[in-house]
Amino acid sequence: MTIQQLEYILAVDKYRHFAKAAEHCGVTQPTLSAMVQKLEDELGVKLFDRHIQPVTPTAIGIKILKQAKQIQLQVSQVKEIVYEEKNTLSGVLRLAVLPTIAPYLLPRFFPQLVNSHPEIDIRVMEKQTHEIERGLLSDEIDAAITATHPEDLNLKEEFLFYEEFFGYVSKKELVFKNELIKTSEVNTNHLWLLDKGHCFRDQLVRYCQQESVKLNQIRYNLGSLETFMRMVESGHGITFIPELATKQLNVDQQAFVRPFAIPKPTREIRIIYHRNYVRNSLLDILKNAIQTSVPKEMLLLRAGQALV
After folding, report:
1. Confidence class for position 171, pLDDT limits 50, 70, 90
2. pTM for the full model?
3. β-strands 91-97, 120-126: how paired?
4. CA-CA 20 to 30 A from 251: which of 6, 10, 134, 205?
């Protein structure tokens, strides 16, 4: 049994297709198939059922694949430990960011971080919360910027900053004339919110105590904050935006922004990672770059703000 063989069976499990797994591993399909077969012969069991499509792990195969993932994680950590011990910043950092954070936070720190530390290969991807936790536990990503506490005890978290929510209100809405938004005054029939599963939506619906809210969402699925903002600007409804989004608005767009009345809904932005992750120096650099890039007042919970 070799580490390479374990890599091959994990690729087959991921893609459920021998040709795609071979392409991922950079070998020919006959080579990969022969190596998988050799491992099966050595173990005396079949790891995959090849008679159905997509290829499916057998019952014993599922158990072996679970162990193979643990071995792969431990092998990858050997190199990471060496990098950390040598105090070198070279290597890959796979960073996941929530879609409601990425467009507003990444431009503030990412270009500068890349320029100041070109030796770090930072690979950024947008993922929702459930995808992030799954990716951290399966070693598909190294760290993530999120807005909720991780549920799994194998995941650790560190505070980054606080971010207030604001209303983005069209001129046709009654609350447009108000300086502050009260949740009781929001016409929920005109409200644009993200699909279920986005923590941004869940936090606001919970804050507004509108679990059965009727949304424009019924007519418009898979929207984004930016899309909803354009709808508001064209005179249709209300949406909610994070504080950093307001920093990117021009003078005309600022006219649509309305803060909430006290208590002002606020989320805590945090970085999470697996408790076995050893590249603490990379995390420290990332954390410092982010906290330096946001306004200083966002590093503290301000008067009138309430975490959601």
Report:
1. very high
2. 0.75
3. parallel
4. 205
CB 101 within 8 A of CB 242: yes
Q: Are residues 128 and 45 in the same domain?
A: no
| Tens digit of each residue's pLDDT (9 = 90 or more) over 284-308 | 999 999 999 999 999 999 999 999 8
User: Is the Cα torsion angle 257, 182, 195, 192 positive or negative in sign?
Assistant: negative
Last-in-domain residue among 60, 84, 108:
84
> Taking residues 24-43, what's their average pLDDT?
94
Number of domains in the chain: 3
228 and 251 together in one domain: yes
| Closest-CA residue to 146 (of 229, 210, 203, 206) | 203
Domain that holds residue 27: 3-84
Which tokens sit at 41? 């012969």
Residue 51 in tokens: 């008679």
- Tens digit of pLDDT for each residue in 193-215? 876 656 776 777 666 665 544 44
Task: Tell me the C-alpha to C-alpha distance, in Å, between residue 117 and each of 31, 92, 111, 113, 183.
Answer: 39, 12, 10, 6, 44
Together in a domain, 258 and 297: no
Contacts of residue 15, Cβ cutoff 8 Å, sequence gap at least 6: 21, 24
Question: 163 near 242, Cβ under 8 Å?
Answer: yes
Residues 26 and 62 reside in one and the same domain: yes
Q: Are residues 156 and 274 in the same domain?
A: yes
- Number of other residues whose CB lies within 10 A of the CB of residue 139: 18
Looking at the structure, do residues 249 and 108 belong to the same domain, yes or no? Answer: no
Query: Predicted confidence band at 280 (pLDDT cuts at 50, 70, 90)?
Result: confident
Query: Are 272 and 138 members of one domain?
Result: yes
Same-domain pairing of 257 and 167:
yes
